[in-house]
Amino acid sequence: MIVLGCNGFSRGAETFAEVYGAVGTEKHYVLGHDAGAALLVDGELVAAVEEERLNREKKTSDFPVNAVQYCLDKAGLQFSDVDLIAVPWNFDATVFDETLRDLVDTKMHPLEKLNRLSHIGKLFADVLGRDAILADFAARTGFTPDPDKVVFVPHHIAHAMTGYYLAGVENAAFLISDGRAELFSSLTGEIRNGRVTVFEDSVISANDSIANLYASVTRYLGFVPNNDEYKVMGLSGFAEPPSPNPFLEHFVRLEEGGRYSLCRPHDLEHPRCFEPLFEEHFGPVEDTLEYKAKVAAAVQEMVTVVTSHQLRTLESRTDLNHLVFEGGLALNCVNNTKLLEGSRFTDMDVSFGASDTGVVIGAAVYAWANHGGEDGDNVAKVKERPAVTPYLGPEYDESAVEQALREFDDRVSYTRLTDDEVVDQVSKLLTEKVVIGWFEGRIEHGPRALGHRSILANPSFPDIKDVINTRVKHREPFRPFAPLVLESDADKVFEMGKKTRSPYMTFVFPVRPEYTDVIPGATHVDGTSRVQTITDEGTPRLTALLRRFTALTEVPCLINTSFNVAGEPIVCSPVDALKCFLGTEIDYLVLGNYLVSKVDVDA
Q: Which CATH superfamily is domain 398-598 in?
């Protein structure tokens, strides 16, 4: 069976801008960000890519026409070969009716209700409704799908199936938490042999979303919501949360059964509705590190307290020992480690597709697992799924690399090397204070660079963070960098707790005291690092490079950050890589088997 997962809306950003004023710093306060596609063939994930990597519009919500075509081309398929199309949203009549009931129950002037009703109607009719989605697919691809072969998967169920499928376990409890989906923002449950059970009394409404509260703080501090939350997370390390914490005293109410609610509902019409309360409890906003860190530390603690509250109830309701955490809030890797260590779960997985980048995978898996079979349910097949790699996007052969180099041959010089020569020469270069772009194989899926489209540097230099932030990434100086470490060395360098591996940069660990002075460039101000563990099986050449570098320097890590500059997607093609290389102060570029340097044009 062939299943195509697809997420994105042609008129999503336009409609949200028109109806809710979602432009500028409000732009990403929309559904459908992280558009993309994934292809499942007989249960095997053969391709997945975000549309932003191909259309070069960061966080795009557009229909993923390029991503869909890539997935089909990768498998040598046509639209007519596809058995099912899976959409990670289900805005059906029930959702519409519940949305209307919520509006009716809201205390406001009748004319305001009518105005909001027109906005809801436009959103459903033009973007989110099933007919709108089917028409959008036909208009953008030229292929009209059979409505009976399109599976609309509730968004949070898609998240749960993504984490479950990528974790590779037979059974798992799950916690899903993000901004908002059809009606909800968070839920818990179990997946046993591929069959999903939601604990219905654990469901948190979209109006009470702590992820959207975090996004409101992100906007309040001058960043872009649904995009820059990791900046707030990074800032939180510069301060201790205030005691008592205003977010826990005045914003969030913990309730029985792991539930919670906010002091006021989120309002799509007024996304800054919490800001007067922020100023009341933290004072007028100040553009200083001290003020922003204070607010960031407070909201970060709130996330940990609330999600831990959810987990305590989940622990009491399941006998399973493995936890899957997915949704946008699961990208808060500072919280993830605290959650696991404070729970009775023996392990927790947060996938490389935890945010909305991954829901196309989960939607496709759900459609495949729940279609066909004598009883209409093939969930048992999920147990037979193959191991999954994050390297699922486009790759470029040597002829494509050479063609790109020729386009820039007046500005670069390059030498072709063998794999062993790449490892040897680049490891020697990295003993110095240099920054190297690293491009190989298929692009990784998800928001983190995982070693195929990365920028590498030596973390033993204390000021290497400043070099990369200012000269290369063009971003805020407080931003930390993540270290690569051999999986076999991880526990020697970091206090890993219950974890033995962290392949997707979704957990943060304290650096052991004896290594804080060894890797200062990869150690955050609070003494932690967002770790990526690597193995010969996962990334053989990068692992060989790190092993060789460590032999030369006795430094067991390399800095790994995404190969892009602020405001742009991670590079995808060789041309993208060369443009980024030439537009920054990156010293060298490894482009497949070519070592590239810049030509001194002035000379």
A: Carbamoyltransferase, C-terminal domain (3.90.870.20)
